[in-house]
Prior knowledge:
By secondary structure, the chain is mainly α. It has helices at about 5-20, 30-35, 40-45, 50-75, 80-100, 100-110, 120-145, 155-175, 180-195. It starts with a helix and ends with a helix.
Amino acid sequence: MNTEVDTLSRIKLTALILFNEKGYYATTTREIANEVGIKSSTLYFYFKSKEEIFFILYKEARELYEIKKDKALSQNGARDVEEQIYNLFSISMEFFREHNLYSRFLYRHLIYPVYGVQSKIESELQEWKGIASIYLFNLFEKGIQEGLFRNLSSDDLSRTFYRNLNGYIYELITSNRIPSKEEVDKVWRVYWDSIKA
């Protein structure tokens, strides 16, 4: 492998691990360089700052998630409401299983923003959250019209969806484990059975 590409990959991977374990502020560029086995001056050859590393990792995480989401949603076709909502849940869980470090990174920084740094991507984050929320809200609206759900509003249903998903991901992160597909499906089934009519 090309030495520069290898060093670049090692810097990003090390930063990703440290940001996940210690957080953005507790991680220093010196620590990243030491873990990679390079001098701090070499790290600055690749990145101008810790902030730049953060933004590149954020961009890569978002791109990986978007590829998975776009592929899954393009196959949605004429599926029923349950399948479409399950698909949204499944996308996040597959991303967590297949790109665990990036998923943890995104989750951590969506839930616990890095003040001062995150403000530079705040409008993009709000737009991203908004698009997903509108899509989900519309699915719940359709399900309500079809009589699929208990007597809950679309807002309530959307909030419970995110609370279930985020709570489950938080549990997996704190227990440091990656769930099987069977476990994910059981979590989904308990959630779905709790909201359906």
